Please model this.
Amino acid sequence: MDQSRQSPHACPFPFPGGAVPLRGGLLDQDPRRFYEGLRGRWGAIAPVELGPGVGAWLVMGYREVLELVWNEQAFSSDARRWNALVEGSVPEDSALLSVLGWRPALHRLDDQAHRRQRQAVTDTLNGVDLRRLRSAVRRRAEALVDGWSTDGSADLVGGYARPLAGHAFRVLVGLPASEERRLAALLGSISGGARDAARAEAELTGMLHRLVAARRDAPGPDVTSWLLAHSVDLTEAEVAHNLAAVLLSGGESTVGWISGATRLLVGDARLQAAVADGPLTVKDVADRALWGGSPVPTIAGRWARADLTFAGCGVRAGDLLIPCLAAANTELLAHGSHDQGSRAHLAWGTGSHGCPAKDAARSIVETAVDVLLRRLHHVRPGVGDTAPHRQPSLWSSTPEALPVEFAPIPPGPNAVTAASASPTVMDVPEKRQDEPEADSGPTQPRWSWWNSLNGW
Model:
């Protein structure tokens, strides 16, 4: 355990009475200042309160976050170890459980159970054709722009980023188009920590269970069907919960990333010109957005496997430790590691539980930004958009709205057909992956976008 940086203050034990509430106030208004103040008082790790009587450790140091997510011998991803649950401190209907509760999915498992499900998700996501994904996203993005382009104003969160990400991930998992709007709303409620998050999660899980049951009988060109066909033989419940994990980690994060990238461009004529004229690319803008603010400020936590000392604080077995990616990236920038193109930032997590959908998300985000740059010109902040309000959530940095103004433009030439297209991003599995092929001929190569990850 890295002891090179000790907490400058004695850490309280137990949590209640000495923990900093992680809700309201400066955290909602200016997260960066909040984290800087918290780090100035406590150091790399601080005692915080997630809800009444529910304590945790917020890990803000860059090295400490890496230690937390990489050291699987000391820290577990299995929420059944959480002492707050064992002690009854977390109400059964708490919104916290929507993000932190145990599920039979790979992001909440350790060791062999984790590796088994990771293999299925890895192989399945390798089948996604990113060229087809970009094409599907571009068609939907063009249709969304056509819907408000003549108005001269728009909300780039509610009218663009959220429905576009919802469409892309709806297509990936194979939900019908009729579920698209509801899917986006459910993901927003859960990641935003809304009061009805528990109900939203139950509805999302039910939606996915119905999808899995339908795909068991009639496979489609989607991630769901390929997970069911995998040789590790996932149960229907495991498939449904892994789909939920992909949607929550990838879908809502993509909304935040699109919002962050477009926010950089809005009102910055120089940046828009730099991309249009060639010195910068859309990819550069996407990377700058990650440095400017992680789409996921904090990721679902880890639990100490045993009593230990971490960054100078005494941590009990079963204590929850939350990796704060936003604070860790801020510290990295403060020490001069500010290469905008560098992937040293932790915007998508790291280690064996890093986000599984970051490359699909990058394809979606870069396509979304490219469409806006090509279609809209001289985009400027809308009325009252001096500092867009963010959702009061630890798990999402997406602003509630991003109003913009621009010169009205006519719809694109393909406005009628763009919205009616029914895209697919992979083929239909014809048989279980462990069944022998009928012949030994060459197989169609599959697009692999997983190789850059360390698994999940």
Remarks:
- Residues 269 and 378 are 7 Å apart (CA to CA).
